[in-house]
Amino acid sequence: MLILTLALAEKLRLDQKYALLAERNAKRNAQEMAQQMTLELAQKAQDLEMTLKRQVRFVAMVSHEYRTPLAIIRTNLDLLSKKKHDPDGSLAFAVNKMKRAVSRLVEVLEINLDKARFATDDFMLRLEYIHLSALVGEVITQAKEFWPGRQLDYYPGDSPAIVISADRRLLKTALLNLLDNAVKYSPLESVVAVNLHCRANQASIGVTDHGCGIPPSEYGRVFEKHYRIPGNNSVVGTGMGLYLVARIVEEHHGRVAIQSVDEGTTVTIDLPIAGD
Ligand SMILES: Nc1ncnc2c1ncn2[C@@H]1O[C@H](COP(=O)(O)OP(=O)(O)O)[C@@H](O)[C@H]1O
Ligand SMILES: [Mg+2]
């Protein structure tokens, strides 16, 4: 009886020992597997980053390659527009149309380049002092060329001398994206307005449309990369516009806010005034 009990106890002890060993082995295997997977993931992330960087370089190269021929087309269009013999004005009309198309192409290239830069966080601000009301005026002029059928009103307010420290091209990109949305998400015959204000040490640019509006529950999400409000599929877009706007404004230590009601939307960019 005693021998049987001892044998049973020994068996129990061995069983426990093997169970413990098996548990340790399983734990070690799981740890090794997790380590291996972490390594593979890190490698994949690195590969992806490299691919993205290569893509950015490619986009930059392509944009650059396009710039020169586009500049040649522009110069020659300028020459053509100086031609005296144009009895019915059809030459000037066609040339102006082509000039607008070239401007749009240049803009698309530049915006794509900025998007690629932001996708990899591979950018540097080129800051300079800028007269804000003049810059917004330039953007409105450009926007009128892009959307000739639309009424775009500019209210520069009573503070024409607002100076900010900003990256001119990026700021233009941000404003054009807001105007693009205002035009895209509102009826053709409706007015889009841009207001410039100065409050304390902040400059504030508001873009207002009379379109479909943004529900308050979507205010946060529309700034996410690639996010588009479901149901807007008939309008072309990538969901990158407001993400880009938010990033650009953030880089300038500013703020962007949405205010939307049934009859339209105002997106406001607040930027610190230089010297503060
Ligand atoms: N002015 C606006 N009026 C109504 N909806 C808007 C407006 N601006 C942006 N949105 C909504 O926010 C989404 C994200 O905007 P954006 O990032 O510019 O992407 P995209 O215009 O390419 O769709 C849009 O898909 C649209 O649903
Ligand atoms: Mg957009």
UniProtKB/TrEMBL annotation:
Annotated keywords: ATP-binding, Kinase, Nucleotide-binding, Phosphoprotein, Transferase, Two-component regulatory system
Xref: InterPro entries: BphY/WalK/GraS-like, HATPase_C_sf, HATPase_dom, His_kinase_dom, HisK_dim/P_dom, HisK_dim/P_sf, Sig_transdc_His_kin-like_C
Domain Histidine kinase: 61-275
Reaction catalyzed: ATP + protein L-histidine = ADP + protein N-phospho-L-histidine
GO biological process: osmosensory signaling via phosphorelay pathway
Main enzyme class: transferase
Keyword field contains Phosphoprotein: yes
EC number(s) given by UniProt: 2.7.13.3
SMART domains: HATPase_c, HisKA
Superkingdom of the organism of origin: Bacteria
Coiled-coil region: none
Molecular function, one GO term: ATP binding
PROSITE patterns named in the record: HIS_KIN
Classification via PANTHER family: SENSOR HISTIDINE KINASE GLRK, TWO-COMPONENT HISTIDINE KINASE
Stated name of the protein: histidine kinase
Species, as recorded: Candidatus Methylumidiphilus alinenensis
